Amino acid sequence: MKPNTPTWPRKTREVRNHHFDSTIWNDFRFRPDDIVIGTYAKSGTTWVQQIVGQLIFAGDAEVNVPELSPWLDLRVPPKEQKLPMVEAQTHRRFLKTHLPVDALVFSPEAKYIYIGRDGRDVLWSMYNHHARANAEFYRVLNETPGLVGEPIAPPPASIRRYYHDWLDRDGHPFWPFWESIRSWWEIRDLPNVLLVHFADLKADMAGEIARIARFLEIEVDPDRWPAILDHCSFDHMKRNAARSAPLGGILWDGGAETFIHKGTNGRWRDVLTAQESEKYETLAVEKLGPEAAAWLASGNGSRGLAQGTATQGSPTSELMRRTG
Asked: Which intervals carry biased composition (Polar residues) (predicted)?
């Protein structure tokens, strides 16, 4: 009996707006060891890019994520400039996307990591990102060639209003939220797809990095684990934010430190009423189904660890136990 052959996703549409130009994937030439890091946005994308960069470059403190791991479907710079730069990279490539699966060209040989986070935490991080955007942010997105659809405007003063607009208009003013989660959840069992959750990374970063390393088939010298863990910590990334934020943070008031903001969950609990919070929870089940909604809310519990607890023993010994 022949083994089951996976049904690989196929691109069925283009997504273009003030941020996206999905047509770039039509011309992108995959390599067998490519890594694609996907999220909705503000879900831990830069964190996982940092992790993958540290694994590829063996804990090198000088890894510059924005330069090495471009957001491929961001429409600026245009694909005519971006594709040659990516093609010229000689290291194992790790690319970023915020597209749903059906707007991507999907390679059976590449590895895909998708990061999820409770939508309320996404929204709180998104609001900070949007509210601190400066004039250059709007110039780049709204006044450069290739804009499709409406330009993006500054957010309202009230984060509560921002929350309700985002839910009522499905991701406004950025892009649809539920279709991104659903499309990646539906392919979670493919052999080249790994789902990672922000809460699991917070609870057990060492274990999750080890899981990512196994998935990417990266063998790490044991002597390099301490450097990798240190360089993937929030404190390190905050101190070295210019090597994490796009363009060194020039698109935000306060610079790169604004882009690498707090990295915390649950800030919405102090603002939203129980009814307002339940509005999101009801929509999550309606749009995703109970299993996906439960995963999005809290991840996999870091394989038994309560959120916010530390791993047993030293991070290095735990990491080595998990990869051994």
From this structure: 308-317
Residue 134: C-alpha distances to residues 65, 159, 294 (Å): 22, 18, 36
Residue 37 lies in a domain: yes
Which residue matches tokens 């069925």? 12
Among residues 151, 153, 171, 152, the alpha carbon closest in space to that of 163 is found at 171
Whether pTM > 0.85 for this model: the answer is yes
Per-residue pLDDT of 176-203, as tens digits, reads 999 999 999 999 999 999 999 999 999 9
Give, as one character, the DSSP assignment of residue 109: S
d(CA 68, CA 86): 9
User: Any bridge partners for residue 110, and if so which?
Assistant: none
R_g of the chain computed on alpha carbons: 19
SS3 percent helix, strand, coil of the chain, rounded to 5, is: 50, 10, 45
Residues sharing a CB contact under 8 Å with residue 84, sequence separation 6 or more, in sequence order:
none
Return the residue matching tokens 């890019």.
Answer: 49
Q: Which domain holds residue 58?
A: 24-323
Domain membership flag for residue 18: no
DSSP string, 217-231: T----GGGHHHHHHH
Distance CA 297, CA 285 (A): 10
How far, in Å, CA of 80 to CA of 27, rounded?
Answer: 10
Q: Has residue 11 been placed in a domain?
A: no
Task: Give the single-character DSSP code of 294.
Answer: H
- What is each CA distance from 74 to 42, 99, 199, 314, in whole angstroms? 15, 10, 26, 39
Number of domains the chain contains:
1
